[in-house]
Amino acid sequence: MTSPTTGSASPVAAGAAPYDALLLFSFGGPDEPDDIMPFLRNVTAGKGIPDARLAQVAEHYEHVGGRSPINGQNLALLAALRAELARRGIDLPVVWGNRNWAPYTRDALVELGELGATRVLAVVTSAYSSYSGCRQYREDLALTVGALEEELDRELGIRFDKVRSYFNHPGFVEGNTDAVVAAFEQLRASGADLSATPLVFVTHSIPDTMEEASGAARPSYREQHLDVAAVVAEQAGARLGVELTWSLAYCSRSGPPSQPWLEPDVNDALRELSVAGTSGVVLAPIGFVSDHMEVVYDLDTEALETARELGLTAVRAATVGTHPAFVAGIVDLVLERAAAERGETPERAVVGRLGAVADVCLPGCCRQRAGVDSGVPALCGRD
Q1: Mean pLDDT within 8-35
Q2: Phi, psi (rounded to 5 degrees) for 97
């Protein structure tokens, strides 16, 4: 269901004003084997994780050539966004920066300064609201701006905003629906009974405390996934002519075993399906924008190996990546936020039952733990 509010003026007519640059803001990943341990130390800084444990994680990268695919995928998305903006006649430079690897956030800020940007809109490569998918980027931006201003001994002179969480934007949903349909069609071609083939949506697990905090000012991380999964399953089933049975599972759990994280793990979910007599399954990584390590290792390596051991025929659906509807949807979100900043009332397109997330992050949203203020500054929000 779409819940738009039509405004009095088209955002396209005014382009992206008042924004004069776009920041594609992502996680980052190692580009070669020598980068892996420094990258993992960046990701886990301040957590006291010993190198011996990091070395175990580093082995995952050996399965994909000693590098993460995420940077290449960010470059592809960067090019696709620039092309879509140009196609619409919107003159808006796009700069790319990562929290954990080159080009770092600092590199992006320097480039934005060289462009003379003063109003920058950030697009985070995470569709859902949580500490790691929203606030941690806002904190990194605030800390990096502060450090750069101290280094330069002057204010940077750039105001930052970010587009709203886009888990239920039609472009993201359409890209995921197309991917699920394609995966089921692959099984259908092999003679599988689609009505007896479950669909398992997969996302990154987070601690239970982070899940609780994510719902302080909006639907929680888990609730957002369940809402979108229901829409994708319904739309895909309608196109396939079957009623799909679906569930939500998690991957990439870390941290001490004593700390509760969202469950079930995708491998446990596959085992339960096997015990129930399932012979085939589709895995849909709905929690991820592109095929980075949590997809190519946790799903393509571990989960598919589990499926083989269980005798399950498993097909992994694609992520949205540079799907045209997803890329166009990101540009729509840019224009939507720009129109709102101009005082207009733009269309806020959504699907599902949850409605559009607020443009500006509300006080207390997306903290690591509910009711606990870390004391770390965060841009693009009200606290």
Answers
A1: 83
A2: -145, 150
pLDDT at 2 over 50: no
211, HSE (Cβ side, Cα atoms, 13 Å): 16
Which residues make beta-bridge pairs with 205?
A: none
Q: Alpha helix locations (H) across the chain?
A: 36-43, 51-62, 70-87, 105-115, 136-152, 170-189, 208-214, 221-240, 266-275, 293-296, 304-310, 324-341
Question: For 145-151, which contacts have Cβ atoms below 8 Å and span 24 or more sequence positions?
Answer: 145/109, 145/379, 146/377, 147/106, 148/106, 148/109, 148/110
- Going by pLDDT thresholds of 50, 70 and 90, the confidence category of residue 371 is confident
Identify whether the C-beta of residue 11 lies closer than 8 Å to the C-beta of residue 21: no
Per-residue pLDDT band for 9 (boundaries 50, 70, 90) equals very low
Phi, psi of 288 (to 5 degrees): -120, 145
Residue 13 has pLDDT above 80, yes or no: no
pLDDT given at position 282: 98
**CA-angle at 167, arms to 165 and 172, nearest 5°:** 120
Instruction: Please identify which residue in the block is written with the tokens 């840019």.
Output: 334
Domain architecture of the chain: domains with CATH: 11-166+327-341 (3.40.50.1400), 170-316 (3.40.50.1400)
- The CB density around residue 81, as the number of other CB atoms within 10 Å, is 22
Q: What size, in residues, is the chain? A: 383
Percent of the chain with pLDDT over 70: 96
pLDDT given at position 87: 97
**AA letter at 355:** G
Q: Are 255 and 261 within 8 A, CB to CB?
A: yes
User: What integer is the mean pLDDT of 319-333?
Assistant: 98
Residues 6 or more apart whose CB falls under 8 angstroms from that of 84 comprise: 327, 328, 330, 331
3-state secondary structure of 22: strand
- pLDDT reported for residue 313: 97
